[in-house]
User: Fold RNA helicase-domain-containing protein from Hygrophoropsis aurantiaca.
Amino acid sequence: MDSFDNFQYDSASSYGGAASVIDDNSSVYTANTNVRTPVDLESLSIVDDRSQTSSVSNGHAGHHHHSPHHNGTIEEDFDGVLDDLKDESAVDLPPHACSYCGIHAPASVVKCLICSKWFCNSRGNTSASHIVNHLVRAKHKEVILHAESPLGETTPECYNCGSKNVFMLGFIPAKSDTVVVLLCRQPCAAVTKDMSWNASLWAPLIDDRSFLSWLVKPPSETEQLRSRQISFNQINRLEDLWRDNANATLADLEKPGVDDEPQQILVHYEDAYQYQNIFGPLVKIEADYDKRLKESQTQTDITVRWDLGLNQKRVAWFGLPKLESGEVRLAVGDELRLRYQGELHKAWDGVGHVIKIPNNVSDEIGLELRRTEGVPSECTHNFAADFVWKSTSFDRMQLAMKTFAIDEKSVSGYIYHKLLGHELEPQAVRTQMPKRFSAPGLPELNHSQMYAVKSVLQKPISLIQGPPGTGKTVTSASIVYHLAKMNPGQVLLFV
Ligand SMILES: [Zn+2]
Ligand SMILES: [Zn+2]
Ligand SMILES: [Zn+2]
Assistant:
């Protein structure tokens, strides 16, 4: 797993849960709002009144000294802020202003090399700095510093292999004090043999979700005060907008239609119609998101090796770097469209399904094409692959909800009420427990798996959850075996 995965996981765990999302928006935001209240123009204008100076500076983020001989500095500071605040409405922000908050000190902003937008290294109202928020949300990984920053127009990259993935990059202080060397954690930092630096001192460029301050300076307090206050929620919605329209701004979030929040899910539902009314739109949003994500993952510059399957169908073998970097997932049976973009053959494209995904033997993907005619099998270079999105799993969810709503016999009364969150007496299913819970031909179950099988067999509805690798599949297979033995007939299992 690379560090980007780690990071995403990390941030997902602190952003992802409902509780922490609320935390990000409400408590942090409220705290900041309080601090910032004194900075409206009205309260600043009383700076002129000497007797009030100390109380104003007190309110102003509380970081100024109050001893009389510092008064001059305080007022200069305030005049500066005041001027800036007056300016802001009149002056347009420069192109390198943070796309979230507008901060534009050259030392504090970096440009994303993938989308060419600028972001600052301040956290604003969120737990990650704006640039890190963007890179994680957009799955971008490469940046360049501003030409007028202390380090100049520099792209952080690995000294050894040239990788620019900032989530993998770190630095090692060299023996001389003033030099650091940038190296990616894997493999370069691990294999470095140069004696002038010590690999055990390697430290990441992104620490605690922001860039190290010697690389990108956190904006000053003054700059933060005058910046646009953007919430975690607004950042997420802005990033979503950018998928369709790269030029969207915060102002576009206010436009009608954009901000239509779906209905909140409930703990209890009146009936299956209400359930469908709330979950239907959510499944649609999820499907749209999945479709956009898949369809934006075109891979170009693919080199193909052609083969003929035993069924006489054309099979294209190739590598997909995006797959290796974890940006997309692929399963056997998924569809891809392969296109020829070179000049040795007329334009061609064909759809096929994946028959092999990368494994520990080879990184190649096997794509069996639907049609054999016209395949430019004499060409090997300049191919591109698009992911073909399929709505099947989302269609099934919608259909299931519709059936649930209109067909009262689609599930038992018990399951109907259970799904809608109604209070029910616990129900036990009278069954003859098997002597052995492990099923023939399957691995032996451990204690918690055995407990799960036993408990499922005695209840009308059960939910088994566990982290990857805990044996949910073996447990389910054992359950199916016992259910099939107990009630000859059909067994329904949702996975
Ligand atoms: Zn910012
Ligand atoms: Zn970007
Ligand atoms: Zn490297």
